[in-house]
Amino acid sequence: MTESTIQTTAATAALCDDFRSMMSGFPTGVAVIAAEDLDGTPWGMTCSSVCSVALDPPTLLVCLRDGSPTLQAVLASGEFTVNLLHEDAQGVAELFASGDPERFRVTPWERTADGAGPHLPRDAHTIADCTVALTQRMGDHVTVYGRVRDIRRPSGRPPLLYGLRQFAAWPAT
Ligand SMILES: Cc1cc2nc3c(=O)[nH]c(=O)nc-3n(C[C@H](O)[C@H](O)[C@H](O)COP(=O)(O)O)c2cc1C
């Protein structure tokens, strides 16, 4: 795993607020990024910064808050799971954004026979197992590039969406 650090200078609070507001106008899907630490304790956080990077080999990136225990578990294990949430999983998205230490006790999760996970099969429409390929520290976040090893689809349900600071369901056709 390679790591690089990009030097940055602090921005004004007003510009940071304006940037948040700008990005709220760019709707996304919603994922729970999850990993187990070296003790086998599961960690996970709600994340909208999931982006496709390359098709061959299949690679994606996620941007995780520096200091997040989920990020620590991802870096320690060198692996993580992307749980793409379906439209009925708003409660899970809110729980995994809350920092609640009980989040994995009240949410069904599992690991695969070959040790991948944590998977949230009740709440995800698609689950991708990734190996960390590269990390890049930028300002208050760390970008983690993940090589996708395996993709599962627990359900064909439409994705949960997030934009304008609210959750939404995929429009009915
Ligand atoms: C819809 C939504 C998307 C989010 N996306 C991100 C994200 O891409 N990166 C991030 O660091 N935090 C994101 N957050 C905030 C984290 O979920 C929140 O800070 C959480 O408590 C972090 O978990 P931790 O305890 O592992 O740090 C998002 C929150 C919501 C509600």
From TrEMBL:
EC number(s) reported in the record: 1.5.1.-
GO molecular function, one term: oxidoreductase activity
Alphabetized InterPro entries for the sequence: Flavin_Rdtase-like_dom, NADH-dep_flavin_reductase, Split_barrel_FMN-bd
Domain Flavin reductase like: 23-169
Claim: Oxidoreductase is one of the keywords in the record: yes
One of the Pfam families matching this protein, by short name: Flavin_Reduct
Keywords: Oxidoreductase
Protein name (Swiss-Prot/TrEMBL): Flavin reductase family protein
Source organism: Streptomyces cinerochromogenes
